[in-house]
Amino acid sequence: MGRHAPRRAARTTLVSTLAVAVAAGSITLFSSTEDTGAQAATTATAGTTEIVLDDPRSDTPPRTERLLAAGATGYLHRQSGVAGLLWTGYGDATTAPARAPSRPA
Q: In this structure, are 38 and 65 located in the same domain?
């Protein structure tokens, strides 16, 4: 096992979990059956988290995301509709505008 294998496995697990959650939400959103009160009560008592997706037929264009670099503490990316570059940290998942490095005097 390579020295970077545990980090890749964690990232792969995160992406897979997100894909499953989005797929489950899509199936629920696009199913043609009505949700009855009994089903809603079962869902509420199960303690699950509700996933809400916007209407895919809206007139707003989808937001695109371009990954530019990934580091040990976060990743640098560009997002459509947002000026400049963004930095998102892995630890707290906060996103902030990226600043240019300061030049020595």
A: no
Q: Is the dihedral of CA 92, 50, 8, 98 positive or negative?
A: negative
C-alpha torsion 89→77→49→29, nearest 10 = 180
Q: Are residues 52 and 66 in the same domain?
A: no
Structure token pair of residue 48 = 């699950």
Q: How confident is the model at residue 34 (pLDDT cuts 50, 70, 90)?
A: low
pTM, two decimal places: 0.41
What was the pLDDT predicted at 16? 80
Residues 79/63, Cβ–Cβ less than 8 Å: yes
The pair of three-digit structure tokens given for residue 78, joined into one six-digit string: 């560009």
Domain range for 100? 61-105
Write the CA distances from 8 to 27, 77, 93, integer angstroms: 28, 19, 18
